[in-house]
From TrEMBL:
Key words, A-Z: Transferase
Annotated GO MF terms: CoA-transferase activity
Protein's recorded name: CoA-transferase
Organism of provenance: Mycolicibacterium flavescens
One family name in Pfam for this protein: CoA_transf_3
């Protein structure tokens, strides 16, 4: 069977764009021919992030064309006339000035899908900001953890979340546009942003701050304010200094953790009866203290067998990304593959974004050497189309969702924002996420634009209704552990017999089968497998840093410095989105059903893919200093006369502009700083010089002046990402956020659909209430009001309360 993206010609433009590279590698893994256009000096990622370059560009070809010259520009025009897709990662206006922007290339080839990825879009004052991950995160408020944490000022985490998110969203958008082209014969222009790529990492706090504002309270961007009376994630430390991340979302999981810790007696205390939620923050802290005291009393080797023996305890051990590659379940799932490189030898790296039964995807070769390609693009006919354009890219696709919490449901919510019909099956209690952080708070994002069908699948009538809905659907997505769906008549064998064209997706925590498949898993533990501790807070997880500390000292010194971003669910959701989009593209074009599996741990490995790899001579991934100011003097936060700035300088030209703007032109030729290698060797001296200059003026002034000069610098937002998303007027004016009517909270604001389309836009719709669409869906199946009443009487259908 032909690969999912077989026959597609893709051009990738944008030296140094991780987001463009990630979007391209998703298509390359699926069989597209991806031709990476590089300048004569090579893509900047080759030197800035060599491991990232290797993974994000596997399976591609390289063609050298200097786009600053007429010859290079003509090369792109000639290629675009034969291409299906162009992915572009340049700053707004760059390619248009060269005569090879979206309008220019689409005029040559009306069937072309052109996807441009920028920092904050192409209009408004934020469009001039450099599209570098640390700058986008600082401006959006992601670094505001410092304002709520162990020290003043922003906290930097050196993970390319914005690029990863935008890359996965762009891949989904491209596949949706390709489906539209099958009907219309026309391509269109797409726009993605790093800002939108960051949105998945805010799970619910944007909703909380709006609810607080409606109550007349002062909104806080500190997520801990909303969770102070709960302990969904407790970080434990053994006597020998090993860190164990637990994730406890449900009461029985909290009880299991107490039993492992040897403190089961506390379950008799009324104040702990609702754990992991409590009546007040003091009770929550008391429970955490008891767990910490217990685990600190004995070594890691004592605790690991006990934890492994209790499948209801969701936990993982803090590791680096390279150590995470050795996880037994990662190996079992095929989430690590070996690729032979002609220069570096064997490179072990992250596997495919989804494991497809009939159309497997994955790398066919290593990243190309500069200029290594197989010659001209093959000419092929584009779809003739002739049909009317749908309203939305994935309109006409029906997805039935069977799962809970965030990782899978937010992946399908992003697909719903791109036009898919998503029907959520939930029981009479509803998705437990509906009450995780207050009634309907957490599900504001995860149920947006969906329909809810509330069934009792323990009744034969409820199971029959679910099967009838799925028999008419294109996709069924199940995120429960293996055995749950099967016991309820929703296993792959049963459903594929009813609907042979069904794409059946199992998007579980650890995977479909294997040594950990029956274990519970949530965000904080899932990201731990991929190496979040090693990457985000590597300095402080070294056992030597906490040797001999009491629990009180750990709580005062170490644990506040391990206040990481919780990205385990958001990373997984983005991988689900990309994998689903690939599967839907294949299913809609061929009518062929198949089984596809993803996992939360695999999705997180993708987010850390630039370090989730090993090969001889691999350079160390840059980490932050012990207080998280930055990875170097030129990728760092600095205190200004008022506020803080985040500086990101990537090239010699940018450094020259920086020191000239500072009135220090002599530093450009100073031997200590004249080259990248020299700047690295004299990093501390450079940091001292820059810190002194930034302290002279307010952060806002530095942002304005340096941005105008072409240097990456922003005023770090210390209010937090949720407040920025909800209240920033520029985001509203430029269409990066939108207003909608929430059925419980009234008018609310959220991020716009993740990709914009010139012809078939995404959609904005409110979240669904449990059982809200029972009657409409049952009527579609041909049931009368009397039938529905009978189903309710039999408790097969649970009415909306």
């Amino acid at each position: 069977m032909e690969p999912i993206c077989g026959g597609l010609n893709v051009l990738e433009l944008g030296a140094g764009s991780a987001a463009a590279a990630i979007a391209g590698v998703v298509l390359a893994d699926a069989g597209a021919r991806v031709l990476k256009i590089e300048p004569p000096e090579g893509d900047r990622l080759r030197s800035d992030n060599p491991s990232g370059f290797l993974v994000w560009n596997r399976g591609k070809e390289s063609l050298v064309a200097d786009l600053r010259t007429p010859e290079g520009q003509q090369t792109v025009r000639d290629l675009a006339a034969k291409a299906d897709v162009v992915i572009e990662g340049f700053a707004p206006g760059t390619t248009s000035a060269w005569g090879i922007g979206a309008d220019d290339l689409r005029a040559l080839n009306p069937a072309l899908i052109h996807c441009s990825i920028t920092g904050f879009g192409k209009t408004g004052p934020y469009s001039a900001l450099k599209g570098y991950d640390s700058l986008i995160a600082a401006k959006a408020g992601l670094w505001a953890r410092g304002a709520f944490g162990h020290r003043e000022g922003p906290i930097m985490f050196p993970v390319p979340w914005a690029s990863f998110g935008a890359g996965m969203q762009s891949a989904a958008g491209i596949l949706g546009a390709l489906l539209v082209r099958e009907s219309t014969g026309r391509g269109q222009a797409l726009d993605s942003t790093l800002f939108a790529g960051l949105d998945p990492i805010d799970y619910f706090v944007a909703t909380v701050v709006q609810v607080m504002a409606k109550r007349g309270e002062k909104p806080s961007g500190d997520a801990r304010a909303a969770t102070s009376a709960s302990r969904f994630g407790v970080l434990l430390v053994t006597r020998d200094g090993r860190f164990i991340q637990t994730s406890t979302m449900l009461p029985h999981q909290g009880r299991a953790l107490c039993e492992v810790a040897g403190i089961a007696h506390v379950l008799d205390d009324p104040k702990f009866k609702g754990l992991p939620t409590f009546a007040n923050a003091d009770d929550a802290q008391e429970w955490e203290d008891l767990l910490l005291e217990a685990f600190r009393a004995k070594d890691f080797d004592h605790w690991l067998p006990l934890l492994q023996a209790s499948p209801d305890v969701a936990f993982e051990v803090a590791v680096t990304s390279e150590e995470g590659m050795k996880h037994p379940q990662i190996a079992h799932n095929g989430d690590v593959v070996s690729v032979e490189d002609p220069v570096l030898g064997t490179i072990r790296q992250v596997g495919p974004v989804g494991h497809f039964e009939k159309t497997p995807i994955g790398p066919q070769r290593s990243a190309p050497a500069l200029g290594d390609n197989a010659g001209p693009l093959a000419v092929h006919e584009f779809p003739t189309g002739g049909g009317a354009a749908p309203k939305h890219p994935f309109e006409g696709v029906t997805v039935v969702e069977f799962g809970s919490f965030y990782a899978m449901p937010y992946g399908t919510a992003m697909l719903a924002a791109l036009g898919a019909r998503v029907i959520k099956i939930e029981d009479g209690n509803g998705d437990p996420h509906r009450n995780s952080f207050g009634p309907e708070v957490a599900t504001n994002k995860t149920t947006a634009a969906k329909e809810s069908l509330s069934l009792n699948l323990r009744t034969p009538e409820g199971r029959a209704i679910a099967q009838q809905v799925i028999a008419k659907a294109d996709v069924f997505v199940n995120s429960f552990r293996t055995g749950v769906a099967e016991r309820l008549g929703l296993g792959y064998e049963e459903l594929s017999a009813l609907n042979p064209r069904l794409l059946y997706v199992h998007a579980a925590g650890y995977g479909t089968d294997g040594p950990y498949a029956k274990r519970a898993l949530y965000a904080q533990a899932a990201q731990t497998v991929a190496g979040s501790f090693g990457r985000q807070v590597g300095y402080w997880v070294d056992p030597a840093q906490s040797e001999g500390f009491s629990v009180m000292e750990l709580q005062a010194v170490v644990l506040p410095r391990l206040n990481m971003m919780v990205d385990g669910d958001s990373n997984a959701a983005l991988a689900v989105l990309a994998a689903l989009s690939l599967g839907i593209y294949h299913q809609r074009r061929t009518g062929t059903g198949q089984f596809m599996r993803t996992s939360m741990i695999g999705g997180n490995a993708w987010a850390y893919a630039d370090d989730f790899c090993t090969y001889d001579g691999k350079p160390a991934t840059p980490l932050c200093d012990s207080e998280y100011y930055g990875t170097s003097a030129l990728d760092r936060v600095y205190q200004a006369a008022e506020g803080w700035v985040c500086l990101a300088v990537k090239t010699d030209a940018e450094f020259a502009t920086l020191v000239r703007t500072f009135g220090l032109p002599e530093l450009e030729t100073d031997a200590r700083f004249a080259t990248a290698e020299a700047r690295k060797a004299n990093n501390d001296e450079l940091e001292t010089l820059l810190a002194a200059k930034f302290a002279e003026r307010p952060a806002g002034e530095w942002e304005k002046e340096l941005t105008a000069a072409g240097v990456g610098c922003v005023e770090a937002n210390l209010m937090g990402q949720p407040i920025f998303t909800v209240f920033d007027p520029v985001l509203r004016e430029t269409g990066l956020t939108v207003a909608f009517d929430h059925p419980v909270f009234g008018e609310m604001v959220r991020a716009a659909p993740p990709v914009t389309f010139s012809e078939t836009p995404g959609r904005v719709a409110p979240p669904c209430q449990r059982g809200e669409h029972n009657r409409a869906i049952l009527a579609e199946l041909g049931y009368s009001e009397a039938d529905i009443a009978k189903f309710e009487e039999l408790n097969a259908v649970v009415p909306q309360s």
